[in-house]
Fold this protein.
Amino acid sequence: MEEKYFKNKIIWFTFLYSLLVIWVHSYNAVLFLGKTSSAYQIDWLERFLGDTMAQIAVPGFFLISSYLFFRGFSLDRTWVKYKSRIKSVVVPYVSWNFLYYFGYVIGSRLPFLSQVIGKGKVPFTFFESVNAILQYRYNYVFWYLNQLILLIILAPLIYLIVKKKLYGGLFLGGVFATIYMGFGLSFLNLDALFYYTAGAFAAVHGKHIVEKSFQRKYLVVGIITLVSALLIRKVDFPGDIRGELAVSTVCYRLLFPAGLWLVIPGNYLKKPKDWMKQNFFLYATHFSMVRFINKAGALLLPPVPAIPFILYLTMPVICVCVSYQISRFLRAYIPAVWNYLNGGR
């Protein structure tokens, strides 16, 4: 497909994944209703959405981030790519982690907000701020960026491995087998490494498929991939229960985004609206909005079962609207801050 269609498709998919991530972080039934039968019924409905379809979001982000990094990559372009990712990933990672921490420090000292936050008085010290910045302690959703930074550091090594199809395939198989056996690393999630390597493999060897204009054969392959993803999620693999659950989940979360990409024709997608292009900013801001809305709502609204479920369903819309208005303000009146927080996007 033409470059403009490819870029549009990337925006559509990152927007979709951003909406799904919001659902993952919006569970609120027990918060509103306590440990009651109504709460567990609402929680089941919320998790039916949040623990199935919505769980493809972060793997989808890893696949797209990896594909864009390795698209046209060669070792002599490593520093160029690194400089770009320092601006678009590392700087926002540090900035947002500190902002969240500072927000908790202030909020925990204000009467109503301290009730909503529920963490007591957050200490404001040098060591606590360093911990907050490096370990995303007050900004839990940035575990994704933490993992992404580690994977970007490893990118040249990953490229050398996947450059040859055989070695790349063997490496993916090895990571998959390690997940199956229930092993892990202390600093890097193996499933994140698996998705990122798969994205690199696609960028190096599968560009003719990923960026191909819509064809019926790819539609058929995409449908088969989607159905396979749904079926494999229910497969009981023999062996250690941790590995059994992990490989079922990993397969589903890899295959479903891949199948979705194949069945949706980029050539026919409309040009994304401006409010669909704020996806990093939406990702960075949604967690604070979700937490505040749910906790404030639980304190102020009556414990009626319909309220948390309606709030859960509409939370992506609320977050998009609020985030977009904040981004408009920043772009119009403080563009330097906007550029800094949004990583130059």
